[in-house]
Amino acid sequence: MKYPAEVLNKREIDALLQACGSDKWTDRRNSALIVLMYRAGLRVSEALALRPCDIDLDSGAIRVLHGKGDRARTIGIDRGATESVKVWITEHRSMGHTAGDSLFVTASGRRITQGYLRRKLPELGKAAGIHKRVHAHGLRHTHASELRSEGIDIAVIKRQLGHVSLMTTIQYLDYLEPREVVACIRRRG
Questions:
Q1: Given 68, 73, 111, 132, which residue is catalytic?
Q2: Which of 78, 80, 111, 182 is most buried (CB neighbours < 10 A)?
């Protein structure tokens, strides 16, 4: 069964990040991963494949080497996300990992799995008191929806999300946030 997209609002994102905690290194890793997926709109596979050397926090650029269809692209990361990611990269290095190792790792140094994230995000959502479905692709939906509401050009959103076709991006955004439909109906007498 395919569920409708559920975009999280800023309060829900903040609650989700609070639910991560900060006491353990895994809390900080999970928080940085959520921030990166939410603020850069990465697919889960793209985020989990990242290495520290793929992220240039000074310029605000992320190299996605293996996007959908194995296409590479460079995307942006905003200043609001860089501090959390920078803290995690520093901790990752202090744990003995190199810039060429997977960024989001387990205690044994292996890359965390999509299955782990599929289990962890709903758990964090419940702990945060969020009544919507909380899942990895929902963070991407939230990113795209925020870009649209900020008036970012659809061609830029297309490149950020890694869509091949502009039509895909238009359909994606209309599916996430059917603003025109809602606005037209609200104007009715």
A1: 68
A2: 111
Q: Is-catalytic flag, 135?
A: no
- Out of 51, 92, 140, 158, the active site residue is 140
Catalytic residue from among 28, 29, 39, 43: 43
- 68 catalytic per annotation: yes
The pLDDT of 156-178, averaged and rounded, is: 87
Q: Is 71 a catalytic residue?
A: no
Give DSSP secondary structure letters for 22-71.
SSSHHHHHHHHHHHHHHHH---HHHHHT--GGGEETTTTEEEESS-GGG-
Of these residues, 93, 126, 137, 179, which one is catalytic? 137
Q: What is the share, in percent, of the chain residues with pLDDT greater than 70?
A: 97
Please say if 163 is a catalytic residue.
yes
Q: What residues does each domain of the chain span?
A: 10-186
- Taking the whole predicted model, whether its pTM rises above 0.70 is answered as yes
Q: Give every CB contact of residue 16 below 8 A, 6+ residues apart in sequence.
A: 8, 34, 124, 125, 128, 130, 134
The CATH H-level (homologous superfamily) assignment of domain 10-186 is Intergrase catalytic core (1.10.443.10)
Is 126 one of the annotated active-site residues of the chain? no
Residue 184 confidence (pLDDT) above 90? no
- pLDDT tens, residue by residue, 69-113: 889 999 999 998 999 999 999 999 999 999 999 999 999 999 999
